[in-house]
Amino acid sequence: MSDSKLGIYDPSLYTIHNRLFFRLFQVGNSLDRQCLNELGISPVHWAVMGALSRPHLNDAGMSFSDLTEYLGISRQSLDNVLKRLEREGSVQRVISHQDKRAKNVALTPSGQQSWLGLQEQFFQFYHQAMSGFALDDLASLIHLLNKLNTGLKQIHLAQPDADTNE
Fold first, then answer.
1. Which of the residues 24, 29, 76, 104 has an alpha carbon 20 to 30 A from that of 3?
2. Residue scoring higher pLDDT (87 or 57)
């Protein structure tokens, strides 16, 4: 990696960035494993149910596109989770109030009950995972993760020129 290719390149900063992104990878894997082991659901399943349970949605649900954007996941990942939740009877496709030709995804009454039934487990899960954090730590962590997420959304790597590969 040369300075001309990367602009200003600081090896010590690269090491810190590398360590941070590796830790995020580990945290994601730990979250995935613990959700499955302790709650019996994946983090994506949890996030979809949580997104659809927000009070302002009522029974109207959300469009598939809005749900992928809100959760920041791929259409394929969301589609797989929704198919599983539909088979379980937790979500359904409903006619959009804005566009009668379109369908939204919404929790079924059974899905709402399932979500409510998990709340105590979620509370315990959060409490145990975050027990080493002060309230200020939590606020700072949320702020910093939001900043990182914003930075990730702005990434547009330069593509190598076809001429330089010869």
1. 24
2. 87
pTM attached to this predicted model = 0.79
- Residue from 72, 109, 77, 80 nearest 94 by CA: 109
Could you tell me which residues are beta bridge partners of residue 93? Answer: 105
Rg (alpha carbons) of the chain, rounded to whole number: 20
pLDDT > 70: what percent of the chain?
Answer: 92
Token pair 């994946």 is found at 42
pLDDT for 12 equals: 85
pLDDT tens track for 101-119: 888 999 999 999 999 999 9
**SS3 state of residue 2:** coil
Q: What string of DSSP letters covers 69-132?
A: HHHT--HHHHHHHHHHHHHHTSEEEEE-SS-TTSEEEEE-HHHHHHHHHHHHHHHHHHHHHTTT
Q: Please tell me the distance from the alpha carbon of residue 62 to that of residue 70, in angstroms, as a whole number.
A: 10
Asked if residue 107 lies in contact with residue 52, where contact means CB atoms within 8 angstroms, the answer is yes
Contact 35, 129 (CB under 8 A): no
Q: Give SS3 for 63.
A: strand
**Exposure of 41 in the CB half-sphere (CA atoms within 13 A):** 21
